[in-house]
Amino acid sequence: MIYLSCDYHHGAHPKIMERMNQCNMEPNTGYGEDPHCAHASQMIKDLCQDQSVAVHFMVGGTQTNTTIIAAALRPHQGVVTAVSGHINNHESGAIESTGHKVIGLPSDDGKLSAAQIHEYYLAHKQNESYEHIVMPKMVYISNPTEFGSIYSKAELEEISRVCHEDGLYLFMDGARLGYGLMSPENDLDLPVITKCCDVFYIGGTKCGALFGEAVVITNPSLKEDFRFILKQRGGMLAKGWLLGIQFETLFEDGLYFEICKHAVDQAMRIKKAFESKGVAFQVDSPTNQQFAMLTADVIRKFDEKYATCDDEKPTGKAVRSVRFCTSWATDPAEVDELIKDIEAWC
To answer: For position 318, what pLDDT does the model report?
Structure first.
């Protein structure tokens, strides 16, 4: 079986495993106050071109999303997201369990627009029942989105402007950020994201690390007492240096960007192969996730040989959306094989 259903099928990049093994018997201070976390934090500050940001390391995406949102919002406030947003669909009510409502707005490609955000903000503010309705206070976006789409620099800057004018925090989920940054259509970079967002994170779990997400907080009001909430929510890893070592390794010599580019390159090969056979896509994704619209008989052929993600999206035709997801560890030879099967079966 060839695995193309997600980007965390494999453990960690060999360089990370080697470094962790080298440091295994090295004693370190706990709870992220060790030299490895300090070094990794400084590397991220340098990449963001902002020495004032606060960097915190956490284990996984749901834990990170929940902790950030719980830290930012007061009890009567909620978080706005695309209806397909990860916090709305794939986290078992984790955000709601903290007492905060997730407000889903319609989106065909997983993205929100600045106009859409502002329209919802005004609708709430001008409602006669204003005080009886959950107050929007944070906007959650992910880059790439659940459908592999990405935000342009102009789109992000406009969303940032609207959020700040309307008094909303802007939070970017970067679980797959490396794949977005290495997309051939991307014009964002970490300094721009740092300037636009109140808080974001750089994903490691799906981008070569064994586990780990690096939270970057830019807004001073969100930095205050964050470690208390991090501890309260179970996000403060006692052996925090295990996170620091991984991000040190990822950001030394550009490894993070190199391996994420590899994943995107393989996805673009898959996309081109489907396009050459006239296969449509649910969303035009320029990243490591490709959502091909396939008929049931073709899907059955793929299912015998490939592990993919079948979202079963109704389209009015006898086709369904199937996600082919590459990763930092995707073998080009397996993509060669997939391309041959696309040519034969589609």
So the answer is: 63
